[in-house]
Write a structure and sequence with these properties.
Helix content is about 15%, strand content about 35%. It has about 130 residues and is α/β, with parallel strands linked by helices. The strands form two sheets. Strands 1-4-3-2 form a four-stranded mixed β-sheet, with helices on one face. Strand 2 and strand 3 form a beta hairpin.
Length: about 130
């Protein structure tokens, strides 16, 4: 029935800042970028290596997320990486604060958390 995740969508507060973060810093290639004049809204489709996509949206004056990290809804977005420590170092070199690396007690895999420009929780999870 379900075969995987096609895309995840994020509404950002500052479209250019989020575009730079996800496209340039996290190095996700752009598939499409469209401005929807009737909504005064941008939509950016980014490609992940496994074929899934990340959609960034801009809207005039979107309401903020009510609380973190325990607000109802999506808790966090996790990215698979080969080497959590290497990606952590890369992000920190680019001024992104990253939590200390932890080990998942059930899988014995390394993981850590950081935030996007709007404070959305992102996870790095070692393959």
């Amino acid at each position: 029935m379900l075969k995987g995740i096609h895309h995840l969508a994020i509404i950002c507060s500052d479209y250019q800042r989020s575009k730079t973060f996800y496209h340039q810093l996290l190095q996700l290639p752009i598939l499409a970028e469209n401005y929807r004049a009737e909504r005064d809204s941008w939509k950016l489709d980014l490609q992940l290596p496994d074929g899934s996509q990340l959609e960034l949206f801009s809207f005039p004056s979107p309401p903020p997320r009510p609380s973190q990290p325990e607000a109802q809804g999506l808790r966090h977005l996790a990215f698979v990486v080969q080497d959590v420590a290497k990606v952590k170092t890369y992000l920190e070199q680019h001024g992104i604060p990253v939590e200390p690396i932890r080990i998942d007690p059930y899988t014995d895999k390394a993981f850590t958390f950081f935030q996007d420009p709007d404070g959305l929780p992102l996870e790095l999870y070692q393959a």
